[in-house]
Structure formats: C-alpha cells, structure tokens
Amino acid sequence: MTKVWDGFIRGFHWLLVAGLVTLYITGEEGMMDLHFVTGYLLLALMAARLIWGVIGSQTAKLSALFHSPKAILSAIKSKQSHVGHNPAGSLMVLLFFVLILIQLVSGLMTTDDILVEGPLAQYVSYDLVELAGDIHHTNIELLIAAIALHIFAIVVYRLKGQNLVKTLVTGKQENAVSTPVMKSGVVAYLIFIALSALLLFTWGAEPLQGLM
Ligand code: HEM
Ligand code: HEM
C-alpha cells in the first residue's frame, strides 16, 4: 500500500462537499447569516488548498494538474491506474477550482437588494454588483453540472475496476506505480484555521453575531 493522498486533501474534499451543500441550501432559502459565515469558511478552505498546491505533497501540487490534450484523451481511454489525479481528473479539478472561485468572488460582490450585501459590494460600481449577482445565479448551475459529471466519472472508473473513492478515503493505493513525496497535512489545516479566524473576526463578525 502506498500513501498517495495526505490528510489535508482527504479532509479538504469532504469539507468542500459539506460547505457547498450548506451554501446551496442557505442561498436558496435566503438564510444569509449562515450563507455568509459558511462562505468565509469555504474561502479560507479554498485559499489553504491553493497554498497547499504550492508547498504541499507531490499529489496536491497545482503544477501536477496541467497536461496536454493528448495526455487527457489517452487518460480517458486507458485503464491504466495513476498516482494522484490522472490527466483527465486534473482537468476536472482545475474546472472545480475555477468555478468555486468565481462563485466565491461573485458572492463577495452580491447583494440580495434587501438586507445584506457581500463585503466587496461597497467598493465596486452598481453595474458590477448587478453583474456579480447574475454570475452568482448562473455559475451555480455550471457547478452543479460539473459535480454531476464528476460523480458520473467516479462511477465509470469503478466499473473499469478502479475504486477512487476508497483511495481518497484511506489515502492509500494498492499497486501504485510510483511513490510520491508526501508532506504532513497538519500544516495546511493550520493555514485553514488561521485564515478562517481572520475572516470570521473581520467580515464574518456581523453574520456570526446574527447566528447567535
Ligand atoms: C459537491 C460535490 C463535490 C465536489 C465539488 C467535488 C470536488 C472535488 C475536487 C475539487 C477534487 C480534487 C481534490 C483535490 O485535489 O484537492 C475531487 C476529487 C475526488 N472526488 Fe470529489 N467532489 C464532490 C463530490 C464527490 C462525491 C460525492 C464523491 C464520491 C462518490 C467524490 C469522489 C472523489 C474522488 C474519488 C476524488 C479523487 C479523484 C482522483 O483519484 O483523481 N466527490 N472532488
Ligand atoms: C462557493 C460558494 C457559494 C455558493 C455555492 C453560493 C450559492 C448561492 C446560491 C445557490 C444562492 C441563491 C441564488 C438564487 O436565488 O438563485 C446564493 C445567493 C446569495 N449569495 Fe451565495 N454562494 C456562495 C458564496 C457566497 C459568498 C462568499 C457570499 C458573500 C459573502 C455570498 C452572497 C450571496 C448573496 C448576497 C446572495 C443573495 C442573492 C440574491 O438574493 O439575489 N455567496 N448563493
């Protein structure tokens, strides 16, 4: 058994899923205090993931996510197992990062036109606030489509004989073709906690009070 996912990547994934589900429900239901607080926590989580993509384990590296179209196509066709994200999976991960960042940044500039507005709305023009609102509403549909495709791909790999979920949960892979350089995910969790505290004490203080 070879360790291929560090503790942070494994925790990051399920925290991301929990955060997005909470944000979707609270957004649709207009529970804005919880929406904002969860939004700041997700912002801290994504920032920690991107930092970890520079200083973290080999399989967490952002530089490992870029591949040629040829490599992506052959990864879709082949049954060969891979250490870390394969080239097709890497494209999916990049797409997620971009869509989630668009959702977060547009949220920071959005208003519900009644009671609340994102912390950046006051610094940008009215037109940009309107645009950010449109993006926040439309981009969520793209994110949902990407999630559906992601889960479909995981099922297809399972049918091809690769249990990617088990590997992501345990962090360990059988018959790995190489041994990646791993780092302790604790550092990334500390970055996440520090950024969360910073955001909750600043932008998050008001919505947090609303929740108490
Ligand atoms: C809100 C829904 C979801 C989102 C946004 C999401 C997003 C992601 C992202 C961003 C990664 C890359 C992890 C990283 O390198 O940091 C990933 C990987 C992965 N996800 Fe999800 N995911 C979702 C739901 C699920 C579900 C429900 C499952 C299981 C059924 C799943 C299984 C996996 C697996 C197995 C990988 C590793 C893929 C590989 O080996 O390359 N995901 N996901
Ligand atoms: C990835 C993270 C996020 C997701 C998935 C998300 C999702 C949503 C959804 C589904 C809605 C309802 C849209 C609709 O009614 O059609 C919404 C509304 C809203 N979100 Fe987010 N959101 C995120 C981050 C944020 C952040 C960080 C902020 C600000 C700090 C924010 C501020 C708002 C506001 C003000 C609304 C109300 C818009 C309106 O009523 O027109 N969101 N969000």
From TrEMBL:
The keyword Chaperone does not apply. SUPFAM superfamilies: Transmembrane di-heme cytochromes (SSF81342). Pfam families: Ni_hydr_CYTB. It is a multi-pass membrane protein. It is found in: Cell membrane. The chain crosses the membrane at residues 7-25, 37-55, 88-109, 140-159, 186-205. Keywords: Cell membrane, Membrane, Transmembrane, Transmembrane helix. Residues 4-171 form the Cytochrome b561 bacterial/Ni-hydrogenase domain. This is Cytochrome b561 bacterial/Ni-hydrogenase domain-containing protein. It comes from Pseudoalteromonas piscicida. The lineage of its organism: Bacteria, Pseudomonadati, Pseudomonadota, Gammaproteobacteria, Alteromonadales.
